[in-house]
Amino acid sequence: MTITFTLDPVVGPSLCEGILELWVDVSNAGGAVGFVPPVTHDDVRPSLDEHLVGVADGSRRLLVGHDGAGAVAATAFLVRNAHRLHRHWLWACTVMVHPRHQGRGLGRDLMAATEAAARSIEGIDAIRLGCRGGFGLERFYASCGYKEVGRVPGAVRIAPGDDRDDITMLLPLL
Ligand SMILES: CC(C)(COP(=O)(O)OP(=O)(O)OC[C@H]1O[C@@H](n2cnc3c(N)ncnc32)[C@H](O)[C@@H]1OP(=O)(O)O)[C@@H](O)C(=O)NCCC(=O)NCCS
Fold first, then answer.
1. Cα–Cα distance, 122 to 152 (Å, whole number)
2. Which positions of the chain have pLDDT values less than 50?
3. Does ligand 1 come within 6 angstroms of the Cβ of 35?
């Protein structure tokens, strides 16, 4: 299936609902995007609203992928830093591909589109992201050119007795 990526789409109710649906489905399939399953739409909505406030005030950029049927299939948010000493790099957050599309190269396409978006922003020298240990995600990001540059042992508590490392990945753009 062909996926069409759009940077800075017009954010209306149907796009918001589509992203919410994606985020809930990815989380309930065990994806590492800020939640531990099971989650409901009401659990996830405040986190989406936070992203959308940032999109509205220009501090975050939204990259969205739509499938051929017009459904939201993938997202990444590019988050600028407010701190004056960190403004030369940004965070990639909420990187996700719908479970029905995973494993077919779309994740790599999403990261290529994320990189292109970051390169189009003046003064951005690197993309940084954080991921949970134990999901193999560092191997996925490494396949997209990112390098592991930090790891905080046990910083992510999935459940009592199940702590995972918080891994920092970096893609220099210079
Ligand atoms: C992580 C994710 C974005 C990858 O998307 P995808 O479409 O499944 O990935 P691709 O098909 O493009 O895979 C690209 C490569 O990464 C590998 N890969 C993908 N997910 C992987 C994982 N979890 N662990 C190890 N390797 C992985 C693939 O095997 C492939 O390698 P290959 O080319 O050598 O075969 C997707 O699985 C997802 O949305 N997961 C749930 C949300 C999530 O955890 N996001 C990460 C937030 S930090």
1. 31
2. none
3. no
